[in-house]
Amino acid sequence: MMISLCTLISAGISLTSASLSSPNACPSWQSQDLNLRSLAQKRRFIVGSAMPASNLKNDVDGGKYAATAAEHFNLLELENDLKPPAIWTGPHDYHFADVDYIAGEPGKKGWAQQHGLKLRGHVLVYARDEGYTLPQWLRTKGPAMSKEEASGLLHDYIKAVAGRYRGKVAMWDVANEAIDDRPNKNPFNLRDSFWFRKLGPEFLVLAFRWAHEADPRAELYYNEYGIEGGGTKAQHMLDLAKWLKEQGAPITGLGLQYHIDCKTSIAPGDGHYQLIDAIRKLRLGYMITELDVAVRMKRLPAGDPNRGLIPEDPADLDLQAKTYASVFQMARSSRNCHGINIWGLTDKYSWIPGFSRGRDGAATLFDKDYKPKPAYQAIVDVLKR
Fold it and tell me: To pair with 344 at 20 to 30 A between CA atoms, which of 67, 121, 185, 241?
């Protein structure tokens, strides 16, 4: 008698990466016990994905993108649509249309609420000047502003944005990437950003206070990259968090970005675990906020549609699965973890190939055809325990 793969899955039999890639394999989520979202809900755990609003508004790929998002995750974070350059078009002038589609304009439900997903807001204050961080009009007019003018603008912006989505955004990255990579003489090695130059380190305290005033029930985070596994930058982050608490800033926790690769090792007692223990000792929570696990790609010329999508060594997808599992195991081991957000829904729209110029990619849980990769099953296995 021939037994289908769906029957095996329903019986709880584990699948290999080879069987998951089989064209006849039934998707693991056809069994409720193996659906990432349903398992996360049962464990009272948050598993999210970062997405551009346009992919949901435009129903890309015949609806596969939106369907996958709603099927497998219980949290949505907008990739760029809530960053200041996307919203803050001028002094007291805002563009809310894209975010309104997801979060709903005041008094109405948006896509997220209609599909039962929590929202994570990223970001109120992007504390650096280069890249997609600071509105161009503010870069131009900002140098001539007084401290009071800059403070007033920031206050009004946070009030306008966090206030508009009050009760709809479960958690905010209040401040993002304020710590410099290279040593400097600023407190906590803070970047020489526009907000630091105008307001000093106090801009961070003010941002947290104003965010809390705008939405008292939202969780509030400081978010940072390059701190995974500990080290000097991680210590700056811990010192900053301690200072923020001392200043009375209503900070909920720290956002640990976790842009890593498939050869990253994470095990109990190592620097990763030591960092989350240090956060616990500060009586703060944490979230893994931008998790992706990159794989080395087959080198293809720019313009090739498969650039950044084909692993140089297919076995790396199994290494990737182990790395994803180790992050979730770490998160599940600590009571102060408030969830994990994966940076990107599918490899097709991941930022990694563009950033690495095709060297790395395939960093998410779903391939370009929306098929779950071994990493998906590895996470499911962790949540089933």
Answer: 241
Give whole-number Cα distances, 344 to 27, 62, 279, 307, 328, in Å. 19, 18, 26, 17, 17
CB 202 within 8 A of CB 248: no
Which tokens is 16 given?
Answer: 């290999």
Q: Report the C-alpha gap between 335 and 285 in whole angstroms.
A: 8
Angle value at C-alpha 246, between 244 and 250, nearest 5 degrees: 55
SS3 readout for the chain: CCCCHHHHHHCCCCCCHHHHCCCCCCCHHHCHHHCHHHHHHHCCCCEEEEECHHHHHCCCHHHHHHHHHHHHCCEEEECCCCCHHHHEEECCEECCHHHHHHHCCCCCCCHHHHCCCEEEEEEEEECCCCCCCCCHHHHHHHHHCCHHHHHHHHHHHHHHHHHHCCCCCCEEEEEECCECCCCCCCHHHECCCHHHHHHCCHHHHHHHHHHHHHCCCCEEEEEECCCCCCCHHHHHHHHHHHHHHHCCCCCCEEEECCEEECCCCCCCCCHHHHHHHHHHHCCCEEEEEEEEEEEEECCCCCCCCCCCCCECCCCHHHHHHHHHHHHHHHHHHCCCEEEEEECCCCHHHCCHHHHHCCCEECCCCECCCCCECHHHHHHHHHHHC
Catalytic sites, residue numbers? 177, 290
Give tens-digit pLDDT for 14-47: 333 333 333 333 344 445 567 999 999 999 999 9
Over residues 242-274, the pLDDT tens digits come to 999 999 999 999 999 999 999 999 999 999 999
Q: Note the CATH number of domain 26-353+363-384.
A: 3.20.20.80
**pTM, 2 dp:** 0.90
What residue segments make up the domains of the chain, in order of their start? 26-353+363-384
219 closest CA partner among 338, 96, 341: 338
